[in-house]
Automatic annotation (TrEMBL), chain A:
Intracellular or extracellular location(s): Mitochondrion inner membrane
InterPro entries the UniProt entry points to: SCO1/SenC, Thioredoxin-like_sf
Top-level lineage group: Eukaryota
Gene Ontology molecular functions: metal ion binding
Protein name per UniProt: Thymidine phosphorylase
TrEMBL record, chain B:
Keywords: Disulfide bond, Mitochondrion
GO biological process, one term: mitochondrial ATP synthesis coupled electron transport
Places the protein is found: Mitochondrion
Protein's name according to its UniProt entry: Cytochrome c oxidase assembly factor 6-like protein
Primary location group: mitochondrion
Keyword Protease: no
Pfam families in UniProt: COX6B
Disulfide bond found in the keyword field: yes
A GO cellular-component term linked to this record: mitochondrion
The organism of origin for this protein: Alligator mississippiensis (American alligator)
Length: 275, 79
């Protein structure tokens, strides 16, 4: 569009100059300022603008049909937009890769764990190899945060289940209150959320080790008159890759849609460590 | 003492929401909302009642902070 505009401006300038120099009626010979009456009036036929126009005497009319100009403009615009979108996607992927590298470096959740699930079966970290895992640490006596976060986690699993191209995600709930949350308590708790939600508990030492490995802060408050207490703890949902390594985490501020989108992106770009 | 089930949790949250609505309507005058408060205390474990009271205080404080009602006291300027 811009070259066409410039072209038109130049042509207008030329037309004005031609008007100034040639078109008005010549004054009488004795007052003629022009060098010689025999010379033809100056016609800017040789100007490049007129040559390009393809029509003599053009002064204000379009050189190319409107359709062609529109087509060219649309193609250029589409090309620009396409390039911009592609570059943006490339940048997003690059940022994701950098983040994953950083998180691998931090290496949260290394080492094995030995816990018991809500059916009483012993579970080690290796049992989850090959599965994508969304992990949440909490406790069953939690007033509001844990149920809300677990509802969110389960909703994320639902959203991902709707997409049949994606591998299934294993939701896991680990207690930070093993003294009260035994196998029966965990079973009662997890069945309210999702049939596949796995509750993990164990001895206080083993649970403390897992919490430490995942850098989860947990501190039981003072017990009440009835022995009840609230455990203050880190509120995060962890995403683990099939190789068991920690890939990402989601805070309370992230919505289900945002988490699901992030998990999807990780699944698509995932490369196992040994490849 | 086992943890509240999902129904019990929802009943507790409902009672809490009613109590907070009453407080909003009565401009934090707890005397008017005593009956609702008793219902709230009956449905929720004591620790949860305390937790929600603290949460309410925090939410009110946050509102006031955001409305700019707290200014640093003059005396701290000298410390």
């Amino acid at each position: 569009m811009l070259p066409t505009l410039l072209l038109r401006l130049r042509r207008a300038a030329h037309a004005c100059a031609a008007l100034r120099r040639g078109c008005p009626p010549r004054p009488a010979l004795h007052t003629c300022p022009w060098p010689s009456p025999r010379l033809p009036a100056w016609e800017p036929l040789a100007s490049p603008a007129r040559a390009l126009s393809g029509r003599a005497g053009a002064g204000g009319k379009a050189p190319l049909p409107l359709r062609t100009r529109l087509l060219v403009a649309v193609l250029l615009g589409a090309g620009g937009l396409g390039t911009w979108l592609y570059l943006r996607r490339e940048k997003e992927l690059q940022q994701l890769e950098q983040r994953v590298e950083q998180l691998r470096h931090v290496a949260v959740g290394q080492g094995d764990f030995q816990l018991v699930d809500h059916t009483g079966q012993p579970r080690r970290k290796a049992d989850f190899a090959g599965q994508w895992v969304l992990l949440y640490f909490g406790f069953t006596h939690c007033p509001d945060i844990c149920p809300e976060e677990l509802e969110k986690l389960v909703e994320v699993v639902h959203l991902l289940e709707n997409d049949s191209h994606l591998p299934p995600v294993q939701p896991i709930f680990v207690t930070v209150d093993p003294e009260r949350d035994d196998v029966a308590a965990m079973a009662r708790y997890v069945r309210d959320f999702h049939p596949r939600l796995l509750g993990l508990t164990g001895s206080p030492e083993n649970v403390r080790e897992v919490a430490k490995a995942y850098r989860v802060y947990a501190s039981a408050g003072d017990p009440d008159v009835d022995g009840d207490y609230i455990v203050d703890h880190t509120v995060l949902i962890y995403l683990l890759a099939p190789d068991g390594l920690f890939l990402d985490y989601y805070t309370r501020g992230k919505s289900e849609a945002q988490i699901a989108q992030s998990v999807r992106q990780h699944m698509v770009t995932y490369r196992p460590f040994n490849q | 003492m086992s943890a509240p089930s999902m129904e019990e949790r929802r009943a507790c949250w409902g009672a809490r929401d009613q109590y907070w609505k009453c407080l909003d309507e009565q401009a934090e005058d707890a005397a008017e909302c005593r009956r609702i408060r008793l219902d709230f205390e009956a449905r929720c474990p004591l620790q949860w009642v305390k937790h929600f009271d603290k949460r309410r205080d925090f939410l009110k404080y946050k509102e006031q902070l955001q409305a700019g009602q707290y200014l640093p006291p003059k005396t701290t300027e000298k410390t």
